[in-house]
Amino acid sequence: MHRRIYLMRHCEVDYFDSNGNPARFQDVPLNQHGFQQALEMRPLLEGVVFEKLFCSGLLRTVQTLQTVLGNDSVRPDYLQDFREIEPSAIHPPPGKNLKLWEKDFLGSLGPGLTPESKFMGGETFGNFTSRVNKALDELLADESWNCVLLVAHSVVNRWILCRFLNLGLNGISALEQDAGCLNLIELPRESSPFIRLLNYTPLDRAKATLRKNSLEMLLDKAHEAMRRRVKST
Prior knowledge:
With 233 residues, the chain is an alpha/beta fold. 37% of the residues lie in helices and 14% in strands.
């Protein structure tokens, strides 16, 4: 049989606290809706036998994996090079023109990326793709599994899919990964890999309520956070 990678994006989180202050990007947990997304994914995967379980090790991926499997004692292997691309900040820096910041924010995943491009002023795409490629190559070289579950992040998943679809950096902006989505990558031993399932979300299978991309939704949250900060001062 084909080897398979079930590839999930972690479920929904809040990147800003109740006062509108940015949360620590590495440490945010799932929110209530995020746990509901994971619970909806559980019956889809309960009949799948996974030889190995992987996540990036960031809390939101651990919680997603444990909730999907219905077992808080499950300890997946942490592949830290699958952590999300790291921004400098997801809020406007002091003195930055707001309209210019919004434009840069919405264009931070391309198109037009180069290895030297920085994600929101933080990690370069060259460094990011290098570490994700390294982790993916090590995973594929491991012959001890036929079926794995990997829970990672939006841009990580986009790049992994770009690899199998033979897309370059511009493919990152063309592939959406909604919170809590599931992808299925088939790895035939005698032929080329292919994508069997892409960005499937059990709570909204037709994407009827998802009318903006991930960056547009995050920008809305950033504006809401700025309003809350103004109110609290």
